[in-house]
Amino acid sequence: MDLIKITDLSNQLDITSRSLRYYEQVGLIRSVRPKFEKYRYYDTENTERLKQIIVLRKMRIPIKDIVRIYESEDMRVVVQVFVDRMNEIDDEVNALSELKRIVNDFLQTMIINGISKISALPLLYDEFNKQLDLHEKQTAINYKRLAEVSEKIAEPANIRIIELPSMRMLSSINKETAASDVEGFWNWLDKEGIPPGMPGQHILFEFQNDASQVVFIQKIDENFKNDSPYADYRFEGGLFAVGCAYVDEDLRAIHRRIIKSFDDNSYFEVDYHHSGRLQHETLVESVISPDSKREIVDLLVPIKNRVPDASLYNPGEQIESVSVRDIEAANPVLWEKNVHLNQLIPILEPYYRVNEAGEAEYIAYIDKRLLSTGIEVKLPFRVDLEFRIDEASARFGYGTDEGSVRFFHGNNLFGINMDNNADSRLSKEAISFNQPVIGDFYTYPKRGRINPGEYNKLSWIVGEKHFAVIINGEVRYCGADFPYMKADLRRQQPYPIILGSNGQGKICIKSIRVLQLKRTPKIRIKEGELMIIPKQSNNMIPNIHQLITLHYGENYWFNGSARYVMECLGEPDYDYWFFAGLTGDNLAQVYACDHFRGDGATDYRLSLAGGARFIEDVFAACGYASTFVSINQLTSNKEMYLQTLIAYIDKGIPVILNHWGNKPRSRWGWGVFVGYEDYGRTLLYLTADLTEPERITFADAFPDQLIEGQETCNGWVFVGEKKNNIPLGQIYRQIITAMPDLLTRKTDAYLFGAEAFRAWAHEIESGRFNGLKPEEFDSWPMYTIYVCNLATNSSCCHEFFTRAQKLNPDFTFLEDVDKLYQQMSFLWNNQNGEDLEAIGGGFNITLDALQDQAKRDKIVAKILEFASCMDRVVQILKEHLHG
Questions:
Q1: Which sign does the torsion angle of CA 48, 50, 55, 56 carry?
Q2: Of all helices (H) and strands (E), which one includes residue 825?
Q3: Is 161:268 a contact under the CB 8 Å cutoff?
Q4: Most buried in the list 4, 39, 91, 863, measured by CB within 10 Å?
Q5: Which of 439, 385, 430, 431 is nearest to 411 (CA)?
Q6: Is the pTM of this model over 0.70?
Q7: Cα–Cα distance between 442 and 825 in angstroms, integer?
Q8: Within 10 A of 644 (CB to CB), how many other CB atoms are there?
Q9: For 807-839, what is each residue's pLDDT tens digit?
Q10: What string of H, E and C letters represents the secondary structure of 760-795?
């Protein structure tokens, strides 16, 4: 079996090792590591498959489709993948053809109107023709031609630039072997509890070194004691161009495009070492992918600033009429420091001493001999200087520029009384300076004149709003809108202020003050520019959590949905137990006279014509307007109601839905829409005890066929504005007052309360289940739902009665009502072997028990005991609520 090393295969096929590893991760190829070998190898079969994969990727076949091709031996899959790709290419060609037509129309319009000076447009048109020819010309098909076409139609690299700080890092290079041990490095990090950085944090990278080894580097603390098997790595940081790529793409081609994109960049260039290699190997960093099925990485290429070309920038504007006060007000001070004249730092041995008058005497002789203040400032800054020129010592020699007063900040010079000459007629007495950042040089003759033999006061203001020179209180020069003022000054390095001159004349310095000016944050967004998005593509309400907790007895999903909406509206008092009482779900036993109608009183009331009014009355009792929109109404105008739903989500309000349909979903019933994606084509749906929303299509929100008896139940509930502020105690009082009517409700379709228990017992006793075959017995809708209703209500209504009595202290009779519900709980599951569950008539019901005369007689008798309890509840309520 012929084997080829991973590095050799990578070079042979012009593919990165990262791509090879990715193809292994998704199961397309496999490598082997022979015993005692540190490299992985590929056999002939996997090498040939890899060549096929590369060809398919050059055709821009997605990885998911390539996986489908190799997983299926059905040729129809291959054909369908290629047909889909050809359709995509047709779409691209059609788009280019349409763009060609638009450009041609624009060009013809220019020619007709006599516009002839925009000479680039015909060239642009020709370029489009060349691009279209790539699609139209019939050429021989070969790998080289395929690669050329793929490269030419590839999108240009989308690049951002970041600055990384200097960091101490730990590498995967083993100290003893000098080889990269990635697997061991990862194991060591895990063992030591050093967490790798999250994607995009810029603290974990990989790169390929000179030995073609993949090296990982992880940021560590500067004080970290490295007793590990792995070598320290000092990362110097700097500017990096960042381009992202899916690892299943051609990373080498993308890398080339990133580098090539700087060929014509006027501001940055790739940072090469003098040997011709990159100053640092290209880094690879994992980032979070917008497509969770595809791994994505950032490629970081070292770059540096080009020497600025002043011709690329507009010159600054001179301001003729501006006062010193206005300039100072527009360029405020952050901090200031007075320089101690006896602490100046001589550079290259100028003459320097502090005399008896406290002045710093300074003679430069030549312009390279300087005095440093030792105080560093960033742009923007200001320098104030008070000095005099000793005329007696001034002498022109060696062609020098006598009498100038200068200072330096980095490579930039700022001087007054410049360009002087022994022949006074040739002296310029100029202001001269380099523009910061850009570095271009300006000279303004006769504006830098000083008073010889006298003290002069000088201020240089290198500000964000003004570049000004003030001599003896007079504004000699002021500029605005310089290019450096538009730069991000936060990235500029601090430099010390260094004083200079030229010639034999002595300068006596009385005071020096260095001031750091304030920087204004660069706000790149206009006010209100991003406040309104005409149409969001996706949104989700912020407080996502489950609607109900089933093991707490929260078994009625509508009440959990209603509680959720009220919570989002800021109404914490309207919780699950409140709604379970308000709807009657936790108070009334139910029984259907014909067919299954749902889980509780809410579903039963909603199942009859006009039942939608009940839902609206529930929210009206809380003071809120609401609308129940039936499935028929929704279907008649789906788009309108979708936009209404989207508007509700954007306001942070869920929309309740009830869905009883035939689509294969195990959790249909009451729930809430909490978000949307793709402009509403996908809806986010919470129901039951889900902690995260499910995704359903907009089409799936509408049942194809309704379950019998649920025709009027299906629909959406929009809860609107609060209309009335109703005291909470009053709402509870009204619920208790309405209980006698609730517990004696009787229709042709269903029964509540004691009559529900009696009807349930009667159907068992009358032999409803006799002759029923086991496969025909569906225990939930036929029987167990009523046990669930009984068990839930008798166990979970007590919190509601406690609150009602606390808010209405005169309702002391609720204690007796509560005891009767507790008694029903005992009768159901806690009666010393005589309860409903113990005799086989509870959740453990069987068809045999319902068909056995003796067993069902005991079950019927027990159910009638529940009816007696409910009769007593109604009696107590009527006695105390009468009148």
A1: positive
A2: helix 814-829
A3: yes
A4: 863
A5: 439
A6: no
A7: 95
A8: 16
A9: 999 999 999 999 999 999 999 999 999 999 999
A10: HHHHHHCCCCCCCCHHHCCHHHHHHHHHHHHHHHHH
